Each structure stands twice: as C-alpha cells, then as structure tokens.
Amino acid sequence: MASEIRAARFWQALHRWHLACAFIAGALLNLAFAPFGWWPLAILAPAALFSLIRPLAPRAAARCGAAFGAGLFTFGTYWLYTAIHTFGLAPVWLTLVLQAGLIALMASYPTLLCYAASRFWRSGALREWLVLPALWVLLEWLRSWALSGFPWLGLGYAFIDAPLAGWAPLLGVFGVTAAAAWSAAALSILLHRQLPPRRWFVPLMVIGAVFLTPLMLSRISWTHRVSDPFPVAVVQGAVSQDQKWLESNRDETIGRYSTLTSQSWGARLIVWPEAAVPVLANDLTDYLETLQNLGRAHYADFAIGLVNHDLQSGAYFNGVRVIGVAGNGWYYKRHLVPFGEYFPVPGFVRAWMRLMSLPYDDLSPGSDDQPILSAAGQKLGLTICYEDAYGSAQLQVLPQATLLINVTNNAWYGNSTAPHQHLQIARMRALEAGRYLIRAANDGVTAVIGPQGQIMARLPQFEESVLRATVQPMAGLTPYARVGNYPVIGGMLLLLLVAIVRRRHSFLKR
Q1: Sheet arrangement for strand 403-408
Q2: Domain shared by 215 and 282, yes or no
Q3: Annotated catalytic residue, options 21, 64, 114, 385
Q4: Is 274 a catalytic residue?
Q5: Does 54 share its domain with 143?
Q6: Is 333 designated active site?
Q7: Start-to-end Cα distance in the chain
Q8: DSSP annotation string for 446-501
Q9: In CATH, what number is assigned to the domain containing residue 459?
C-alpha cells in the first residue's frame, strides 16, 4: 500500500512538470539516432510521452505533444543553421525564422497525436494498445511525404543496430516503427499502472514477440547472389562547401578527382559523389570523353554525380552520369529539396533571395519512369542525396537492380550529426532491399553497406581518399520490396477503424 502511494505521488509530481518532462523526453530521443546509437531511448521516450498524457485533458495533452516535438526537432535539426547560414550565407534572422518554421511544422505531428488520442479515447486498453501505436505510425508516414516530406528522425531508423531492425525486410522502416511504438505502449502500461506480477504477462508477451520474431525470421535469405563479386572504388574529394563553387578552385577540384581516379584503377566500377566537380556537364564534354577512354583502357565503368543543363528545354538537372562499356546514360534526381534545389516562392522573392546570396536557379525534377542504367554488368538502383530517405521510391527498380548506389553531398552540414544520420538512413534502404549499397559522399560519410544493413567499409570524414571494397550483386525481392508500405499503413488504419467502431459502440451503450 505504501509503495502504491509513493508511486501515485511520483506520477502526480511528474505531471505537474509535464511540459518540461515532454520536452526533455523529445530532446533525449535524439540520442537514439546516429552517431550515438542509444536505441533503447527510442522506446523509453515514446513510453514517457504516452504516460505523461494519460491523465491530461485534450488541450493539455496537445501542449505536451508540442513540447515533445519541439525537444526532438530543435536538437535534431540544429545542423540546418550550418547549411542555411554558414554555407547558404542567409542572415541569422532568416535562418532562425526558417528553422523555427520547420520545428513548428514537425512538432505539429506529435501535437495532433496527443490531442486526438486524448480527445476521442480518454483512457483504457483501446487507446493504449491500438490508438497510440497506430497514430504514431500513421503520422510518421504522413510526415514522410506531406508537403514534400521530412522523414528525418523517423523512429524506426534508430533500430538499425538493434533486434527490431529484422522487421525492415518484411515491413520496411514503418514496420520497425510500429514494433517500437507497441513496445513503448507496453512499457508505458508496465511503468504507470503498478500492475501486480500476474498481470505483467500481456505487456511482457507483446515486448517479447516484437523483439523475438525478427530474430527467428533472420535466418531466411530473401535475396540471393547473382554473378561474381567485383571490386569497386568510391572517390571522396573532401572539398569544403564554402570552397567548392569558387571559380578559382575549379581546376584544382577537377585535378583532385582526376588524381583520385588514377588511384582507383583495378576497380570494375568507380563512383564519384553528388555534383562532384563545380562545372556543368555540358562544359566537360572533352574531359568526360577522356575519362571514358581511360576507363575502357582499365576496364572500369563510372557513375559520376554532375549537374547537367538540357540545352533544348533550358532545364538544369542534378544527375548521375553513367559511363560504361554497355553505354552511357543519365539518371536525374526526382525528389528535390525545397529551398535547397528549388524555391516554391514567387519570382520577386526568389530575386530577393539572390541578393541574400542564396541559390536562386531552380533545378528540375527527373521523370518518374527513367530507364534503369547499367554499369559493370549490373543494373543500378540510383538515388541522389536525400532521395534515399524515401524508401518506397526505390521499390520500382528493385525487380531489376542488382546493386544500389547513392551519391550525396553532406558537406552542407559540416561536422554535425546529420551525415551520420543520413548514413543510418542509407543502411535501412540496403536492409529493406537485401542488396549492397555504395554510398559516395563529398566529404563523408563514404561507405559500402551490405545487404543486412551492415557497414562493410567506410572512409573517415573530411579526408581526401579512395574507398576500395568488393560488392556482391544480389537479386530477388524481400517481402517489403514486393508489397511496400501497404500492409503496415493498411494495418494501422484498420486498427484505428476498430478503435473508432469500439468507441462509437461504447458511446451508444451509455
């Protein structure tokens, strides 16, 4: 009895400070992601939020969700200051306004979760077991594509080195998120209700099933080897973002990549990062022809990140130029970054941004049905930079692709957590697809990732170097590659529908 009274007093005191506690829980959730990797916090932090909002009225719960989101995204997106102000040269006030706007928008998702759960399902097992996990997954999925999408800090990515990662080949990253959300709900029940030991069974059974099922399924090989493994080389030029586009550095940058490429001979495939050299591909015709001839002499194909200007349409594209024995071709980035690669604002605002030294020429998105390109005898699943954060976008190429490549430029974010978290996202894509992924970054993190999401080889950041590794082409489809996000999102919608029907039935019985 005394222990129950003490526990009740503890929770009462905690809820007096619920906004501060929610903010701290959201901030601590950042430590679950790379480079820290304290993944248990990705269960503890949502469990804390679920516990905090349990006795609160809808508006108070919404404020609690807003505080949680503010803590998560304030500390989780601090690196945007470096991209916008340090390298984008925007004034401090504009940088802070843009960051505050993003944080407010992202915090609206946990705000909506907490308000809806408290407004329509005040308490009980229905809310804890169905509503909270389903809303968490659905709102995270919505955040991944609405208004261009911002999948960063999705809960599932925190588990790339944890047992829950085994759900990814089956159900994708949102399946991992669902497993984590259910574990958090179970933990919240155990911590809050002071259940007698005989009633621990259901929460512990849920947690056990969530963690043990992927371990048992990990023995299944969803994909298989095709052809022989072959050597690759990934070039990391390590050109600082504030120096990259200076005309005075143009020849030095091209020379640096030429030198690094000469150190890469012996590799069957050589990969350069996104927009590797500060020159339009149109102005590199002779250089690219020379590179192609050298590649033929050394039996090497290339995948090179370049910006290309289509002279017929006048459009500019962020692309990958594939140069190989089987022919040449372009892949153009499809999912562009707003306010980074295009500006969804009126022309006079764009002109004003030009005065602020921000980029103002919009890039154009590539077509959604671009033909798959080949190099080194393999079909390539290509993505550029932030595109790899949209897992379902790569599904259409997986029936053909035997190798994944992502070229990126994380130099915009300096020495921050962002490049490490971007690598974490790439690892999830490799695990979902069951394929090797080559990741070429301008100044890191350059890596080769295995089909289990494991890092096979990597380079230190900010180091001019060449990464050599051997990759194994893979074919076949994981369950996730076959069906995408439909089972998880459909399942969460069904759970929410069940909760709505049960709530209406209970209401009518009153």
Answers
A1: 373-375, 378-384, 403-408, 437-441, 447-449, 455-458
A2: no
A3: 385
A4: yes
A5: yes
A6: yes
A7: 33
A8: -EEE-TTS-EEEE--TT--EEEEEEE--EES--HHHHHTTHHHHHHHHHHHHHHHH
A9: 3.60.110.10
Rounded Cα distance between 52 and 409, Å, is 40
Same domain, 410 and 360: yes
From the CB of residue 56, how many other CB atoms can be counted at a distance below 10 Å? 18
> Do residue 338 and residue 430 come from a single domain?
yes
Q: What is the pLDDT of residue 121?
A: 81
Q: Write the CB contacts of 58 (distance below 8 Å, at least 6 apart in sequence).
A: 115, 118, 119
Give the structural domain span for 498: 2-221+485-509
How confident is the model over 32-63, as pLDDT tens digits?
Answer: 999 999 999 999 999 999 999 998 999 999 99
Residues 6+ apart with CB under 8 A from 25: 44, 45, 48, 49, 52, 68, 71
Residues 304-355: tens digit of each pLDDT: 999 999 888 889 999 999 999 878 999 999 988 877 777 776 766 666 665 5
**What's the per-residue H, E or C state across 290-345?**
HHHHHHHHCCCEEEEEEEEECCCCCCEEEEEEEEECCEEEEEECCCCCECCCECCC
Instruction: Identify whether the C-beta of residue 239 lies closer than 8 Å to the C-beta of residue 443.
Output: yes
pLDDT tens readout for residues 337-351: 877 777 776 766 666
Q: Select which of 21, 64, 140, 333 is catalytic.
A: 333
Dihedral sign from CA coordinates of 399, 403, 404, 408: negative
Neighbours of 286 (CB within 10 A): 8
Which among 128, 140, 274, 341 is annotated as catalytic? 274
Active site residue 114: no
Overall domain count for the chain: 2
Q: What is the pLDDT, as a whole number, of residue 241?
A: 82
